[in-house]
Amino acid sequence: MAPPPPSAANVSQPSVDSLAAGSRMAHAAGPDTVTQPIALVSERLPWRHTFISLKVPNFRIFAMGHFVAVIALWMQRIAQDWLVLQLSGSVTAVGITVALQFTPSLFLGPWGGMMADRFPKRRILILCQSVAACLAAVLAILALSHHIEVWHVYMIAFVLGLVTVLDQPARQVFVNELVGPKYLRNAISVNSTIFQLGGLIGPALAGLLLTAVGAGWAFAANAVACCSTVTMLIMLRKNELYVSTPVPKRKGMLQEGLRYALSKPTIYWPWLMAGFVAVFAMSLPVLLAAFADHIYHAGAGGYGLLNAMVALGALAGAITSARRRQLRLRSVVLCAGMYGLMLCLAALAPSMVWLSIAMVLSGFWCLMFLTAANQLVQVSANVSIRGRVMSLYIMVLIGGQAIGGPTMGWIAEHLNPHAALLVSGGVPALAAVTVAVVLARRSELRLKVNVRDRRRMVRIVAQSA
């Protein structure tokens, strides 16, 4: 049996300043909001320990179910977007679908985090996956019977967004209950690897299904996968979970989570960068649909291929992040900036081949940013308030896509996809440079270049160094 999880009162406070060195909290927390230390690895991990969190039996069971579910989820996402594009002929309509699915998180995200803190996460996930299975089954029936219309997809996307409000914060915090604080960072990277591996397989399968038999079977596959996730959750060994004590209901819970998060630079700076990335750079499937259909005339197969290239790069990023030795705020900013830069380069790609290569690089840096930001926010928050903190982070990340989806779709349709992709990457890149300058001035850091040191020609050091 796994050892009992540490209580909030026994968790130690970090001691290194995150703004200067990337690894300590700049503000001391109160007695009820003590923070877990950020895990640092002094030596490079052996390859056999890249996914060490999988040694935990419960996490292995969860990971298997999650892998199947993610493949099917990607299949449904690609099929849904392509179906709307074919039914409406409008890229803006695809953006509206994305907006409807993510808008609930923009307005109800903090409430979902409060529910994750108050109720058992496992039960929440079982309920959410059961409802998601029903929604996917309805889509499958409508599509296979050829009665589906755009408004059907809109409505189901919105209801699925309501399910996501509860599912996402509970899922994020549940990882800690599966592996405990020791393997939390690694488990987050493993989850990202699974998601991106599914993103590599799912779009390819979706492209084949869309070409061969239509979107209905992709929806049906997702319904079955959601049922398999429920089965895996039921199979977990309850006595080996690191279950945190539910927080009793009281007034001001949401405000408490917001105040807590704003008091920690390692939470609110990743939030800020996540906002820019979410609004401008996370609606990439919408833009890729425009490239595949209007620019290269590659059809559903080409759309699936471009999404698979993004997932291929993201998979490499997930493996790299699992082996990251140090977790630093400046790494979050750097990765966001590199992701924006790669999208700008993709906007200049002269052919679909070069666009595919740019998508691999974009996927790599996108995943490096998302994983680093997720890890930094989670390990900077006490377990008793982590659900609310993560829900606010998810509200920014997912809710931003509700704004960015139709905006990027409108730009792609009324200007051109190249301009939309340039805006998509340029704004986050500019935001990253601005944040980096602000953090450097506050922490009195500067760039130091040493051409004689081939391994570390460019370093960030203190002004006095």
TrEMBL record:
Keywords: Cell membrane, Membrane, Transmembrane, Transmembrane helix, Transport. Gene3D superfamilies: MFS general substrate transporter like domains (1.20.1250.20). Pfam families: MFS_3 (PF05977). Residues 58-443 form the Major facilitator superfamily (MFS) profile domain. Its main location: membrane. The lineage of its organism: Bacteria, Bacillati, Actinomycetota, Actinomycetes, Micrococcales. It is a multi-pass membrane protein. The chain crosses the membrane at residues 58-76, 82-103, 124-144, 150-166, 187-210, 216-236, 268-292, 298-319, 331-349, 355-377, 389-412, 418-440. This is MFS transporter. CDD domains: MFS_MefA_like (cd06173). It comes from Arthrobacter methylotrophus. It comes from the Bacteria. It is found in: Cell membrane. Coiled coil: none annotated.
